[in-house]
Structures are given as C-alpha cells and as structure tokens.
Amino acid sequence: MILTSLLSLCAGTENMRTVIDLNSRAEALKNAISICSGIIRRAPKGTLRCQFTHGSWRYYRSIDPADPSDSAALKRTAGRYKYLKANELHIAARLAEKDHAIKLKKLCEAELASIEQYLKAADPSALSGYLEKLSPGRKALLEPVCDLDSILGKAWSESPDQRLSPFEGNLRFRTKRGELVRSKSELIIANYLYDHGHHYQYETALHLASRTIYPDFTIRTKGGDAVYWEHAGMLDNTGYGEDLVKKLNDYARDGIIPGRDLIISFETQAQPLRTEIIEAIAEYYLG
Q1: Fewer Cβ close by (within 10 Å): the C or N end of the chain?
Q2: Could you report the per-residue pLDDT of 226-277, keeping only the tens digit for each?
Q3: Is the dihedral of CA 275, 281, 285, 287 positive or negative?
Q4: Three-class DSSP category at 213
C-alpha cells in the first residue's frame, strides 16, 4: 500500500512551473527515497523469482551459498532458488515489495538529481528582469508589448492542464475568466484576482511531502513565486474544521507559512465573507 502511494506520487505529470514547485517535488522525492530505503533494509534476504506452472504461480527465493542459514536449503535444491510454500507466501510478498522499492528508489534518485542540478543553475529572476537591463530608449518601445511578467503569468494561468483537481463535482458558479468554482465567496475571490490582474489557478495540485493537496487558489506573484489562498467557508461544520487544521499543519511542515506564503479567509453561515473583507486581504498580501 505504501509503495502504491509512492508510485502515484512520483509518476505525476504536473508541469512544475516555479522553483517553489520544484523544491516541493524534491522534498517529496527525498521522502519517497527514505521510505524505499527502509523497506529494502527490513526486507528478507535474496530476490524473488515467479514462475507460472500447471495453471498457477509458484514463487522462489534466491539462495546465497555464502550465507550459513541457506546452506541446508542449498543442499536440498539443484539450483539457486528455494521454493516458497503456501505458508511462506508472506516472504514472497515482502521480496516483491523489496524489488519494487529498489526500482522505485532508482527512479526517484534519478529525478531528484535532475531537479537539484536545475535548481543549482536556475535563475528565476532572469526573465522577469530582462526589460530592466535594456536601455531606456529601447525599453520605452518594447515595454507596452513585451511585459514578460504579464506574458508568462497569462500563459501560466491559462495553460490547458491547469485544472488538476480530481474533485469535479459541485462546481456551480462561473467566474469572469470562465472557469467554474464551488461557492459565491470563491467566485468573489476569483473575480477580484481577475479584475486586478493577478494570475491564478483554481484547485491545482500541490505536492507536499506528506500528501497531495489542492489549494483553492494558487497565485503567481510578479516575481514568479507562488502564494496560496485557502478559503474556509464551512467553519460551522466540526469535521471541516478538523480537516482544515490538518491541512494548515501540512502546509507549515513544508515551509508554506500562513501570513507569508498562505492567505486564509474564513466564514460561517452567520458571518459570510463580504467583498470588502476580500479586498482588504488581497490588497494587504498582493498589493
């Protein structure tokens, strides 16, 4: 079960657009490598061989001639593998898990090495600072049509694969930009961001070390960094509050701190979120 979750984590197809995304991915890969190493370390000795014979699968464990504990088995077998009986199938399962962990660990290590090499060489401010390096005369001609931050932000927010949330139900309110959101408060937030030129994505996957979550809004700042906005709109619901606390703690463990990288707004049935509150929050955090 653990390895199935890890495989899903490491086989994701999300385009990692910012350095923050890459750092989050790197931390997830390190966590996966650590888990795989533990599985390998605790697994039985040897490797697994599977053979389909007479309509059923038979399982064998490799024998190490140098291991005294395998010496008796070596004498009873003509080859290098010992047949695992029905009451030893748990050994076969753990060997299969070990083989899988070894392969997955290699894939994670290869991807992690590529990410670390890129992060070491990358300069996330190079594109956004391009116009500042031009002469004033050339900049005056280019700036109206070549604002790189606006071009990159628009391409990012309107990319066709930007909606990655698996929770497609209950999308009822259409924003000015054209996508559907779940609540009137999210509609107000989305329209405010759109009206004020903030590039955002709605419910796009964010890979934390512990799990994958789907922030209500991922907002791209002018410097290319990511700021997340979570709207807690069901605080009357006890279970919802507990889930929210767990989610905020997971954010914090990954270095995404409320009030710095994470915006949070709240409402209850008796205290709905009003437009002036959204405007005050957005102006403070986003300018």
Answers
A1: N
A2: 899 999 988 888 888 889 999 999 999 988 999 999 999 999 989 998 999 9
A3: positive
A4: strand
Cα end-to-end distance, the chain, whole Å? 45
**50 HSE (CA, 13 A, CB side):** 9
**174 contacts 191 by C-beta, under 8 angstroms:** no
Q: Specify the DSSP class assigned to residue 158.
A: T
Domain that holds residue 136: 124-157
Its pTM stands at: 0.51
Comparing CA positions, the residue from 29, 86, 23 lying closest to residue 254 is: 23
Tell me, what amino acid is at 136?
P
How far apart CA 184 and CA 234 sit, in angstroms, is 13
Check whether residue 94 and residue 175 sit in a common domain: no
User: Same structural domain for residues 282 and 224?
Assistant: yes
Length in residues, the chain: 287
Distance CA 232, CA 239 (A): 12
Which residue is it, tokens 């790197």? 26
Alpha-carbon distance of 117 to 121, in angstroms, equals: 7
Final residue of a structural domain among 121, 140, 174: 121
